[in-house]
Design brief:
Length: 346
C-alpha cells in the first residue's frame, strides 16, 4: 500500500503525527509512506523509520517571495505527482493542506469531516471524511484518523514516535539541560525573570545550560537568560537537524508549549512543559519522560492568543520584588516548583 501523508507544519503538529505513522506501519507491514511537508520541518519527518520519502514544499517561502520561489514550488508539485498513491491522508485539516493533497495522484484524498477539521472548508475536497472529536489530544486525533482511513482498529497502546534508535548519530552527552523558551504566542511565554532564575539555579547546581533561539526577539531573551551564570550558553543559529542533535544529548529540558518542547519529549528527553493559556489535555507534551505543568489560575486555560485577564496585577515578591507577572496565570507556575520537578528528573 502506497500512502501520501499531508502534514505541512508547524513543528509541534509535525511531531504529533509521528505515532500515527508507527501505528500504520504495524497494522500494514510493508506500507510505503511518503510525507509532503514544509521544507523547514523535513528533518523531523525523516527521523521516523517508516517514512519512505520526504517531499519538501515551500508554501511559506512562496508566500513571502512568489516570483523567486515559483520554480521551487513547481518542482515540489512535480515530485508530488510523480507517484501514484492508493490513498492520500490530509492530517492537518486546513484549506491549504487539502489543496496540496488534491494535487496528488491518488485514488482518493481523505481527512477530517467538517466538524472535526480545523478549517471546515477543507472537508469539501476530501473523497472520504472521518469524525474525530476535537476535544481529544492532538496525537490521539491523528492516530484515530489514520486508523479509520487505513482500516485498522483504533490503537490503544501508548504513542510510539518511531524515531529510529541512533538516527541522530553518535552523540556526546551533555551534563546539562536545555531551556526552550521560544514560542509563537506572546502569552505562552514563561516570565523572563523566571527563566533567568531557573538558569542560575541549574548552573549553580553544576549543570551546563543551553538556550536555543530563533530570530532576533528570541535571541535577545536568550542572551538575557545567559547573563545569569557563566555556565549558561546561547546556541548559535542552527538548522533543525543540528538542533535535534543538541536536544537529544541533554539530561533534561524545560519548555513552554512549543514545537521544540514536543520534539524534546518525542526524542525521549525528560521534558518539563509549562502551560498557561493553552491546555495540556489537547496539546501537552507526550513521551515516556514528559511532565506537563499547568497553571492553576482562575481563567486558565483560556486558549487565547492574547491575555484577557482584567483583574488586579499579580505581583511576584521573590524574584523581581513586586513586579507584575505577565501573563498572570504563570504566577502559579513558580521557579521553586519547576526546579523541584527538575531535581526529581535529574
Amino acid at each position: 500500500m502506497d500512502v501520501l501523508l499531508v502534514k505541512l507544519s508547524s513543528l509541534g503538529d509535525v511531531v504529533h503525527t509521528l505515532p500515527a505513522i508507527t501505528d500504520a506501519a504495524r497494522a500494514h507491514p510493508g506500507i510505503g509512506i511518503d510525507w509532503i511537508i514544509e521544507d523547514a520541518y523535513r528533518p523531523v519527518a525523516a527521523l521516523h523509520s517508516a517514512v519512505r520519502n520526504v517531499v519538501p514544499i515551500g508554501i511559506r517561502a512562496f508566500r513571502r517571495a512568489p516570483t523567486r520561489e515559483w520554480r521551487r514550488l513547481r518542482a515540489s508539485i512535480a515530485a508530488l505527482r510523480s507517484r501514484n498513491y492508493d490513498v492520500a491522508i490530509d492530517a492537518q485539516g486546513l484549506a491549504k493542506s487539502a489543496l496540496v493533497g488534491a494535487l496528488a495522484r491518488a485514488n482518493g484524498i481523505c481527512g477530517y469531516d467538517s466538524r472535526s477539521a480545523r478549517e471546515p472548508i477543507a472537508a469539501s475536497l476530501y473523497r472520504r471524511r472521518f469524525s474525530v472529536a476535537r476535544d481529544r489530544h492532538a496525537v490521539e486525533r491523528v492516530r484515530a484518523l489514520f486508523a479509520q482511513a487505513l482500516g485498522y482498529p483504533p490503537p490503544t497502546s501508548p504513542p510510539d514516535f518511531g524515531i529510529a534508535e541512533g538516527s541522530e548519530g553518535p552523540l556526546t552527552p551533555l551534563d546539562g539541560i536545555a531551556l526552550l523558551h521560544g514560542t509563537t504566542w506572546p502569552n505562552k511565554r514563561w516570565p523572563d525573570a523566571f527563566w533567568r532564575a531557573l538558569a542560575e539555579r541549574a548552573a549553580r547546581r553544576g549543570l551546563d545550560v543551553i538556550v536555543p533561539a530563533s530570530g532576533d526577539a528570541e535571541r535577545a531573551l536568550a542572551e538575557r537568560i545567559a547573563q545569569a551564570h557563566a555556565r549558561v550558553r546561547v546556541l548559535p543559529p542552527l538548522p533543525l537537524d543540528a538542533l535535534v542533535r543538541e536536544l537529544a544529548r541533554v539530561r533534561a529540558a524545560v519548555s513552554v508549549d512549543s514545537g521544540l518542547g514536543q520534539l524534546s519529549a518525542a526524542l525521549g528527553v525528560p521534558t518539563i512543559a509549562l502551560y498557561g493559556p493553552t491546555d495540556p489535555k489537547l496539546t501537552g507534551c507526550v513521551g515516556a519522560h514528559a511532565t506537563n505543568v499547568a497553571a492553576s489560575f482562575p481563567c486558565a486555560p483560556c486558549k487565547k492568543r492574547g491575555c484577557a485577564y482584567r483583574g488586579a496585577p499579580v505581583l511576584d515578591d521573590d524574584i523581581e520584588h513586586g513586579r507584575a507577572v505577565e501573563p498572570p496565570c504563570f504566577s502559579t507556575v513558580s521557579v521553586d516548583a519547576v526546579f523541584a520537578r527538575l531535581e526529581r528528573v535529574l
